[in-house]
Amino acid sequence: MQWTRQNLFSSWGNTLTTLLILAGLLWALVPLLDWLIVSADWRGSKRVDCSSGGACWVYVAERFDQFLYGFYPEEERWRVDLMAVVLLGSLSLFLWSRVSGRTATACVFLSLIIGWFTLTGGESSLPPIETRLWGGMMLTIVLTVGGLALAFPVAILLALGRRSTIPVVKIFCTAFIELWRGVPLITVLFMASVMLPLFLPDGASVDKLLRALIGVSLFAGAYLAEVIRGGLQAIPRGQYEAAAALGLGYWRTMYYVILPQALRHVIPGLLNTVIALFKDTTLVLIIGMFDFLGIIQASLNDQEWLGLAAEGYVFAGIIYWAICFSLSRMSKGIELRSNTHRV
Amino acid sequence: MSEPVIAVERVHKWFGTHQALDGVTLNVKSGERIVVCGPSGSGKSTLVRCINRLESTDSGRITVNQIDLAEGPLAVEQVRKTVGMVFQQFNLFPHLTVEENLCLAPVRSLGLSESVAKERAKEYLERVHIPEQAKKFPLQLSGGQQQRVAIARALCMEPAIMLFDEPTSALDPEMIKEVLGVIAELADGGMTMVCVTHEMGLARAMADRIVFLDEGRVIEEAPPSEFFTAPKSDRTKQFLSRILQH
User: Which residue in chain B has the smallest CA separation from A342?
Assistant: First the structure.
């Protein structure tokens, strides 16, 4: 009460402004909440169940499994669920201060390798599932996490290379970064999907998802490299000299002394790139793959559920936002735990 | 014993158009304690940084334990493992605890086991009188404590030679004493040392020989008794009168 009186109603002008803003909020929020929740249709399974004029969440509920798994066979979807749990588990190791960052990174990479073989199957007793059946949120996550996992080591090498004193290495890394950063992701994906097979010898083929992954990771790698380079530049020369004076060579200096510090400096920038990539992966629609947004869009053309674009896009927006916000909280957690050495 | 452990022969070094070292020759015998002094910009830091090749030289020859530094990266790495260095700005690794700072190089460049390295770290932290700080991070310590950790970190490599590059210049006056105390103890223990410093008290107490540098040249080389009471060159007299006034 005290606070509102002091800050919102301290004078006639302030009171008026406060009331106007409140009125504006009510005017906008009430119909929105009414559409989203109050008069929305939640129960049923058919189009006819949506008659109230509010949002038709029946459609989202009916298609929910498809939004998550795409066309991944129903009886094999437990693999996706299992791998999602494994991935989340290994990612959460980053937040646990008793596990070192290196161990957590190793666990994530291991879970990704296991994940790839579990989801594709074929090698073991699991029946093979072609990647063209993959879709929905599952595909979005595979592209983002897989793309980043491939991009990260490349980015570190590129960032180090761009600061190298060896001219050939420096020129190569700079050119590589500028090339991939200067080309739109759509172009990269299109090249990876359509042009690359033309250059391969007859009979040799690379899985389409794998091609997209490589395209995405080269693109993201160029961006990440520049973010990491920013962190490298913040490390004082004395750190390199101290490591050198202790007889540590270039790679050990980088691995144990420079990179751990540099990466900590650029966590916000890295998260920026991660979130951008997460949302950009939706461009795989161009090469005929249906990620989360793609599959929602495709379902809008279903004869039975025509005219529900608003519901589809609002649902997509909510889910994207929720995941990006969780990522942001997670990076905040990593920042906190990795800065214990600062007083 | 006659072979010097550090032999600097007619070394020249330029930074662009500025000549930092102009034909410096310096021989250090095993167990000898050298203090290098001179006005700022005289090339004294550059000289010690050349000894473990943090700076390259433009001409002349430097050998450490008969290893020629110009031979290549392997020779340089070999020399660095036997030459400890303490910097003006400490240069501790801020993301590692004191103990990890001390163990990193013994494990990763000497190949010691983790447990042996930890034993060593404990021993040398005791030597510099701060065994209780092992689990803290460098930035949680005072400047004097940080510099003592830096000395212990260099000692953990069990070097034959220690280089000090103005080890007390970045410290508050009250902390200078604790660091000087540790350096003096090391000197008493018979360590071969080359120390750049403005602390004339330290020079007087521990040096076997004082080397006075100006404009990249060795102007005078003498034991402290001679250096302070009967300097030969006018340049040295001028420097001493200015520095000892305070």
Answer: B139
pTM of the model: 0.88
Asked, for residue A92, whether it belongs to a domain, the answer is: no
Q: How many distinct structural domains can be found in chain A? A: 2
Q: pLDDT of A112-126, one tens digit each?
A: 999 998 998 877 678
Residues A123 and A143: their CA atoms lie apart, in Å, by 22
CATH number of the domain encompassing residue A312? 1.10.3720.10
pLDDT in tens, A42-98: 888 888 888 877 888 988 888 899 999 999 999 899 999 999 999 999 999 988 888
Is B6-244 CATH 3.40.50.300? yes
B91: distance to nearest CA of chain A, Å?
Answer: 6
In a domain, A114, yes or no: no
Residues of chain A found within 8 Å of residue B154, distances taken between Cβ atoms: 245-246
pLDDT in tens, A12-33: 888 899 999 999 999 999 989 9
- Shortest distance, CA A94 to any CA of chain B (angstroms): 16
Hey, what are A158's tokens?
Answer: 């590129």
Domain membership of residue A10 as a residue range: 1-30
If asked whether residues A25 and A138 sit together in one domain, one would say: no
B159-176 average pLDDT score: 93
Selecting from A241, A260, A342 the residue whose C-beta is nearest the C-beta of B91 gives: A241
Q: Do B89 and A247 touch (CB under 8 A)?
A: no
Same domain (yes/no): A279, A156 = yes
Residues 6+ apart with CB under 8 A from B177: none
pLDDT above 90 covers a percentage of chain A that reads 63
Give the number of other CB atoms < 10 A from CB of residue A235. 15
CB contact (8 A) between residue B83 and residue A245: yes
Joined together, the tokens standing for residue B10 give 């007619």
User: Closest by alpha carbon to A131, among A290, A299, A303, A6?
Assistant: A290
> Do B80 and A244 make contact, defined as CB atoms within 8 angstroms?
yes
A166 interface with B at CB cutoff 8 Å: no
Q: How remote is the C-alpha of B99 from its chain's centroid?
A: 22
Sequence-distant (6+) residues with CB within 8 A of A136 are A66, A67, A68, A69, A70, A290, A291, A292, A295
Question: Which residue(s) pair with B195 in the sheet?
Answer: B35, B164
- As to burial, measured by CB atoms within 10 angstroms (0-12 exposed, 13-18 middle, 19+ buried), residue A296 is buried
Q: Which candidate from B93, B110, B153 shows the least CB-CB separation from A257?
A: B93
| A42 domain residue, yes or no | no
* Cβ <8 Å between A246 and B105: yes
Whether residue A298 sits in one domain with residue A182: yes
User: Is the minimum CB–CB distance between A340 and chain B shorter than 8 Å?
Assistant: yes
A40 torsion bin: left (phi>0), alpha (psi -120 to 50), beta (else): beta
- The residue type of A72 is Y
